[in-house]
Amino acid sequence: MTRIAVYPGSFDPPTRGHTDLVHRTLALADTVIVAITSNSTKEPLFSVDERLSMLRVAVGEAPRVQFDAFDGLLVDFCRRNGATLIIRGLRAVSDFEYEFQMAMMNRHLMPGLETAFLVPPEDATYLSSSLVREVARYGGSVDGLVHPVVAEALARRFRK
Ligand code: PNS
Predict the structure, then answer these.
(1) Which atom of ligand 1 is nearest to 11's Cα?
(2) Ligand 1 in contact with 8 (CB < 6 A)?
(3) For a disulfide at 115, which of 12, 55, 86, 141, Cβ 3.0-4.6 Å?
(4) 35-51: per-residue pLDDT in tens?
């Protein structure tokens, strides 16, 4: 049986923590679909297409990784793609409540769809897309926190 995992998120922008998790997921699944939600209530900094292309470059050559975007419910995207596993990153206790609620709701909506939580590398536990956006917005360095193409895209966006 082929195990397909979906790693969903806003990825606005993708960080080193995200790309690390994509590679870790390959140990648990045959195929990983990195799925950008396009129906976020948040006003995104980057378009879905910009985020998709940044993710492709940041993840690099990985034949078992696919990239896609979806609107609507995550469980419907998983159903359409034959996925049986959702991957989410868990950085700190503060992430837990939201993640737990989502996992339970997704299980309610699609019994049999499992959620697995993976932890990022120790030196990325403080890393989030929103902090990266804020640091870049005010001219701080995001080197080492995101792939160079993401750092360049942030610099271009905030130079405007
Ligand atoms: O990176 P984020 O913003 O924390 O990702 C949140 C995401 C995209 C996983 C979540 O908002 C989501 O699944 N959205 C799709 C709509 C949906 O299925 N909502 C119910 C989730 S229980």
Answers:
(1) 1
(2) yes
(3) 86
(4) 999 876 679 999 999 99
